[in-house]
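# nightly structure sweep
# worker-07 picked up a monomer target from the shared queue
# config: single-sequence mode, recycle default, output format = structure tokens
# input follows
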Amino acid sequence: NAWIYFQTSESPNFGSPDKHVSCRLIQDNQFHDYVIDMSKHEKWKGNILRLRVDIEPPDVPAGTQVEIDYIRLRE
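# output follows
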């Protein structure tokens, strides 16, 4: 699973539990594109100042690596 936390100019408390969107990850050692519509979150408004991605795959051995190739934001 992945959680995307955000900080905005209207709600600057970064990492607040009410400002995140979650996403299930595919665990098959391949790259995948994930499209996450952040605009559906009620607090996703104003200037977006920062993002934080937390990744915690379940039942994965210590030392497992996760790579993020890119993050793209668009209107």
